[in-house]
Amino acid sequence: MPLAQSDLLQIVSGVWGSVLGMEVQFTGECEALPQDEPVLSACVQITGAWAGAVTLLCTATAARRAAAVMFGMEADCISSGDMQDSLGELANMVGGGVKSLLPETCSLSLPTVVEGNDYTFSIRGASPIQETTFTYQEQPVRVTL
User: Fold this and answer.
1) Contact (CB, 8 A) for 97 and 11
2) How far, CA to CA in Å, does 109 sit from each of 45, 70, 102, 115, 118?
3) Which residues contact 110 (CB under 8 A, 6 or more apart)?
4) Which of 46, 50, 70, 125 is the most buried (most CB within 10 A)?
5) What is the DSSP letter of 115?
């Protein structure tokens, strides 16, 4: 796959900067997410000349803050659906950035979002090829290819 770690970092930084007006701080480590609050996972799959997926994993706090910025609302007015929509859209944008660096015969799926406290999220037959963690407003967000 012709995507370097620096490409993924640039894509994520660009999406967060343009959509949320925020810089992200890359930690580079696979930081554990807090166990005391729900987490959200969003995934878009890429098919065609390259097959894979882009996933975002974050705390409900990070998703709520992102949704508040995206929808111009107060954080306490954000619903679970709003959080899922915003994280799905962020995954879609990061996935689109990844797809733009791949051969032209690739397609991007609609995002799938899962939310909860105790679940397993997997893509059958897939294994991570890149993973990075960054912080958004002091909350960890993990991006995996």
Assistant:
1) yes
2) 5, 21, 15, 19, 25
3) 44, 92
4) 46
5) E
As a whole number of angstroms, the distance between CA 58 and CA 141 comes to: 5
- Measured in whole angstroms, how far is the alpha carbon of residue 55 from the centre of its chain? 5
Instruction: Find out whether 38 and 116 touch, Cβ atoms under 8 Å.
Output: yes
pLDDT of residue 29: 66
Which amino acid is residue 102, in one-letter code? L
Cα separation, 19 vs 101, in Å, equals 20
Per-residue pLDDT of the chain (145 residues; tens, 9 = 90+): 567 888 889 999 999 999 999 888 888 666 667 677 889 999 999 999 888 999 999 999 999 999 999 999 999 999 999 999 999 999 999 999 999 998 788 999 999 999 988 888 888 888 888 888 888 888 889 999 9
AA letter at 140: P
Could you give phi then psi for residue 95, rounded to 5 degrees?
Answer: -60, -40
**What's this model's pTM, rounded to 2 decimal places?**
0.91
Half-sphere exposure (Cβ direction) of 9: Cα atoms closer than 13 Å: 12
134 and 15 Cβ atoms separated by less than 8 Å: no
